[in-house]
Amino acid sequence: MDISKHDYLEKVLESHKMKHVSDFVSKHKTKRDEIKSELQSNYTGKIYVPINSGSYAKHTAINIKFDLDIIVPFKRDAFETLEEMFDSVYDFLYEKYKDKATVRKQKVSIGLEFYPDEDGEVINLDIVPGRELNQDKYLEDKKLNLYVNTLYGVLKEKTYIQTNIQAQIDHITAKENERKKIRLLKAWKHHNRETYKSFLLELLVIKAFDQANIDGNLWEKLKKTMEYIQNNVNQEGFTLKDPGNSGNNVIDTLNTNERQKLSDTMKRIIENIEANDDNIKIYFPINEKFEETDTQRGYGIKTASASVSIPPNNTRFGL
Q: Please, what are the domains in the chain?
């Protein structure tokens, strides 16, 4: 490589910043605020003020793939059952936006994918209805029960999950070092078409920083984070507690084989980059749309690719 791995990863992070798509983000925010207002108007007396959640609220979003999340906290007596709550929100959103968007039921949320606008851009929002755990206590404890649509979820035996979304947001808010590694692993995930949940990667990074001595420059910190994942994720007794519900062990979303595969993948990434610095471009590519070039003083749309070519799937490293 012509530059150090540290400097290269800084360029990767820069190219994935949300500031490069600020107009697109503004469209999402405008639509998000509209939907929040519509929900509050429709459920007057049954609802607390909806809150923003997801990777954008946690400052871990990257610009190659993102949506905005809305948590809709209902009062305990607003609905008799969580399923009734979920279906009511879905029905309301469907009737309101069926001519403007695809409205679909998901694991714990209702997804809205709006049809392309005049710029050909598609706005995606996830609406997560929740019911307070204890009557009139949400403003104090922030605890919610979410309906789990078992057709899409991993909790086959349960139709609800208790969580505290605000605690999940607070868990990462002040951790800039961790957020950089989370964004890099999310870039790896999306560019290499991995299927790991972003929340899982987020918790793994935070636990690595809590449990291991993560120091050095950006590459050294990322390497040590991946080494922690490699050495621990497949160990018996390893836990990854959800900050929104300590009874929810997020590592259980992976079976034994999937945990071993993640460990092996981290090992291969480290070995291949250490063997040849240029391999870092395969795992952590720069977003070419916003890559700085010698003729640019800022970032903008590139017209030609300057990145390393990625081998076919059957020969790619880390698989």
A: 5-16+175-315 (1.10.1410.40), 18-172 (3.30.460.90)
